[in-house]
Amino acid sequence: MARNSSQEDFPTVSNNVGDALEMSAADMLREIGGVGRTKNVIDRAAKLCGITYWRAFDIVYNKVRHIEPEELGRIRDTLKAQREVRTKISNLEYRIARLERILDRQVAERDRAHPDLFGNVVHSGG
């Protein structure tokens, strides 16, 4: 783990993007907690990570001297799982949008006027 001199007792860990980008446990908790009031963000993150509210509070506000490896592991695992869920949701949203475009195109083709065998214009689809 890389450590900054200004954060001597506050470890940072690499996120999934690469070793060049470093993310502290406090940043991970903030990302896990989502948006909203800070108290609610910390509470959500603590529940999802399986740590107490006050432990999460101390981590977010850099009041801890040491983060246990199992705590850091739980935070990392929770963040990884959340990112995977977000990716799956994003993929599903993309697939649904694609299917909607296909359906719209099929409906437009069905509703378009078509000539019948005798050359008369017929509107299909009732």
Structure characterization notes:
With 126 residues, this protein is an alpha+beta fold. The chain has a domain at 5-87. 57% of the residues lie in helices and 13% in strands. The protein is built from 4 helices and 4 strands, in the order ββααααββ. The chain has helices at 25-33, 38-49, 53-60, 69-111, and strands at 12-15, 18-24, 113-115, 121-123. The strands form 2 sheets. The protein has a two-stranded antiparallel ribbon with strand order 1-2. The longest helix is centred in the C-terminal third of the chain and has 43 residues, at 69-111. It is rod-shaped, with a radius of gyration of 26 Å. Residues 1-21 have low confidence and may be disordered.
Task: Jot down its keywords.
4 helices, two-stranded antiparallel sheet, 126 residues, disordered N terminus, alpha+beta
Tell me the series of helices and strands, N- to C-terminal. Answer: EEHHHHEE
Radius of gyration: 26 Å
Given the C-alpha coordinates, what overall shape results?
A: rod-shaped
Major sheet details: 2 strands, antiparallel
Task: Figure out the total of helices.
Answer: 4
Mean pLDDT: 79
Helix content: 55-70%
Strand order of the largest sheet: 1-2
Strand content: 5-15%
Report the strand count: 4
Structural class: alpha+beta
Q: Unreliable stretches, pLDDT < 50, 5 or more residues?
A: 1-21
N/C terminus separation: 67 Å
Give a short synopsis of this structure.
The protein is an alpha+beta fold. The chain has helices at residues 25-33, 38-49, 53-60, 69-111; strands at 12-15, 18-24, 113-115, 121-123.
